[in-house]
Amino acid sequence: MSSPATTSTAAAATAAEPAIVFDRVGVTYGRGRKSTVALADFNLRVAAGETVALLGPSGSGKSTALKALAGFVRPTSGAVRLAGRDVTDLSPAKRGIGVVVQSYALFPHMRVHNNVAFGLEAHRVPRNEIGARVTEALDMVGMSAYAKRLPRELSGGQQQRVAIARALAIRPKVLLLDEPLAALDAQLRQNMLGELQQLRKALPDTAMLYVTHDQSEALALADRIAVMRDARLVDIDTAQNLWRQPSTEFTASFLGGANLLPCTVNHVTGTAALVSVGEHTLRADAPPPSVGRPDWVPNADAALVVRPHTVRIVPLAERDALRGTVVTSVWKGASTRLHLDIDGIPAEVTADVAGHSPLAIGDKVGVRFADPAGVLVPPAIGTASAADGSEVRA
Ligand code: ADP
Ligand code: MG
């Protein structure tokens, strides 16, 4: 990793390279038959001022990627660079990265002030500057009034704010957050999301890598979302692009939840297609071919991504309406989630309708898809549909 050749290449690239570069990073834990590939051929670039969310299910390698960058785990292959400097072999303290983890990791016997000062001392900040730097960092998270408290005298949300202040005190150019809200309850998580958005605004030059398994956090915070699965990055784009044109079934269901209806392509005109879903013919968006996306041809198998909120319930008598039966109906407050058995469609279809629906199990309803009904993605073998993103693997 630190061979003379690599070092000089990195130095030459300094001016042009973004704040964070993962260059074909692989991490394998253990050896031999008991080894686990936690990260494989992982490439990612994050610009100064940019926030990228690493989004994926538990065990997909998100924390491992973050640890490889922070220096807590040594890559088995590849290199990590910060602003063009190869730091693969540098100790964590020398990387100047701010790290926030789910469990706060505050020192229980130290007061808030000292918890935040600790990192500054480790970074050899002059003693006479430490007080002001601690106050500055605590101010950023609204915690200066709590400087004299012990961690156990704070709520979970307050402890996490202190942990964030501690990471910010060293004025890092790179901030890593690993599921920082996962230990907080739902209401507090919402509030903290707003505060993290404000923090991003206050740190316009800082590159952030935000690890989460929660798509709503990724949507709220990230400029781009990197979707991870089984140690690999499988999709990366802005949230809106991933939502509109996911390149895989996995991304479609993990980000936003979707019906994935098996279909066959009948006819393609430009980026529009007619597809057969069971006994019905529907119009679909057929994005142009790109990496991971085929050129759609007649008779090709595909999956039609239908977002639950686009499926409408209409009177049974309405002309050309599909006929369905309510399988389950769950009121969620602002909306009701229906599972529908639709005549001529082999897969169950999930629909979200606004408000409280009076429909009950067994009711016969008319159903209408939007036009186009959704977007095509390549079919994934061995993958089941999951509108809530919970069971994307069969
Ligand atoms: P995530 O953060 O996405 O949940 P991780 O990066 O923590 O995933 O883990 C990825 C894979 O590596 C998992 O299969 C996990 O069990 C394994 N793993 C993580 N840390 C270690 C370790 N220290 N030793 C052995 N295996 C590990
Ligand atoms: Mg993790």
Number of domains: 2
Write the CATH homologous superfamily of the largest domain: P-loop containing nucleotide triphosphate hydrolases
Based on DSSP secondary structure assignment, what is the total number of beta strands? 20
- SS content category: alpha+beta
What is the CATH third-level topology name of the largest domain?
Rossmann fold
Secondary-structure element series: HEEEHEEEHHHEHEHEEHHEEEEEEEEEE
Instruction: Please state the average pLDDT score.
Output: 90
CA-to-CA gap between the ends? 39 Å
Bound molecules: adenosine-5'-diphosphate, magnesium ion
Low-confidence stretches: 1-13, 382-394
CATH class of the largest domain: Alpha Beta
Strand content is 25-35%
How are the SSEs placed, and which strands pair?
Layout: H1 4-13, E1 20-29, E2 36-46, E3 51-55, H2 62-70, E4 77-82, E5 85-86, E6 97-101, H3 112-122, H4 127-140, H5 156-169, E7 174-178, H6 186-202, E8 207-212, H7 215-221, E9 224-229, E10 232-237, H8 239-244, H9 249-254, E11 259-269, E12 272-277, E13 280-285, E14 301-306, E15 312-314, E16 322-331, E17 335-342, E18 349-354, E19 364-368, E20 375-377
Parallel strand pairs: 3-8, 3-9, 6-7, 7-8
Antiparallel strand pairs: 1-2, 1-4, 4-5, 9-10, 11-12, 11-14, 12-13, 14-20, 15-19, 16-17, 16-19, 17-18
